[in-house]
């Protein structure tokens, strides 16, 4: 009986010690993650060599100093340094109002792409804290905007998966392009046609259509477009 009580007490103490250690680790981890204001983050834009280069995306802040040739002054991605320019990761607008953390008006698939970029930085660079503002509150907790963006990204992922399944049923054309000869599409089996992608999938104008190969008995389907200047039953078209 005494031996059983001793074991119980020992295991209880061990369990309590593990719980205390876990709580201490969580508190230490949280305290090591800094909360930045927009003004403070702007100081880390690569213009001061004594400071690291930081960027934000969806409110998460990363140290990108190891990529100084890209994110430092004169680098191709310097416009991302010292700010959260989440929208620019998919819009390609790197000036003025384009360098904003607002995702207003972006499609589900575009928001999914922004989240994909954030995941890239988590994999490739050191996460150093959170930016207080649109995506994190003054305590570092996620806001409704971050939760909304992640929900929209999840819907985007589902739409893209559905699109892949649809496109797998109808094979894509072969294609090639050269500066001298221009572009060409062709089908090993069937005939090339332009087919509309769902608007939710299309990220930019030209991506709203794709080239797919159709058999002759499928060519009367609505929505199929013959390439300009290409014969109706040609299996190869200049573009």
UniProtKB/TrEMBL annotation:
Matching InterPro entries: Cyt_B5-like_heme/steroid-bd (IPR001199), Cyt_B5-like_heme/steroid_sf (IPR036400), MAPR/NEUFC/NENF-like (IPR050577)
SMART domains: Cyt-b5
Segment forming the signal sequence: none
Keywords: Lipid-binding, Steroid-binding
Pfam families: Cyt-b5
GO molecular function, one term: steroid binding
CC terms in the record's Gene Ontology section: endomembrane system; membrane
Location of the Cytochrome b5 heme-binding domain: 36-132
Family: Belongs to the cytochrome b5 family. MAPR subfamily.
PANTHER family per record: MEMBRANE-ASSOCIATED PROGESTERONE RECEPTOR COMPONENT-RELATED, NEUFERRICIN
Protein name: Membrane-associated progesterone-binding protein 4
């Amino acid at each position: 009986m005494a031996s059983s009580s001793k074991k119980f007490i020992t295991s209880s103490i061990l369990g309590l010690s593990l719980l205390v250690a876990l709580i201490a680790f969580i508190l230490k981890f949280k305290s090591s993650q800094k909360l930045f204001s927009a003004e403070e983050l702007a100081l880390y834009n690569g213009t001061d060599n004594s400071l690291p280069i930081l960027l934000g995306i969806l409110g998460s802040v990363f140290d990108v100093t190891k990529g100084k040739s890209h994110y430092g002054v004169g680098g191709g991605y310097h416009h991302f340094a010292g700010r959260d320019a989440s929208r620019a990761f998919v819009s390609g607008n790197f000036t003025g109002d384009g360098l904003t953390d607002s995702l207003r008006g972006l499609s589900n698939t575009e928001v999914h792409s922004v989240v994909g970029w954030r995941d890239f930085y988590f994999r490739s660079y050191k996460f150093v804290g959170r930016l207080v503002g649109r995506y994190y509150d003054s305590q570092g907790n996620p806001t409704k905007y971050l939760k909304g963006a992640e929900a929209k990204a999840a819907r985007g992922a589902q739409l893209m998966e559905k699109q892949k399944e649809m496109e797998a049923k109808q094979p894509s054309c072969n294609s090639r392009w050269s500066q001298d000869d221009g572009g060409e599409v062709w089908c090993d089996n069937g005939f090339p046609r332009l087919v509309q992608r769902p608007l939710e999938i299309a990220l930019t104008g030209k991506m709203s259509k794709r080239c797919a190969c159709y058999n002759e008995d499928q060519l009367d389907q609505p929505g199929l477009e013959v390439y300009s200047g290409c014969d109706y039953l040609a299996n190869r078209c200049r573009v």
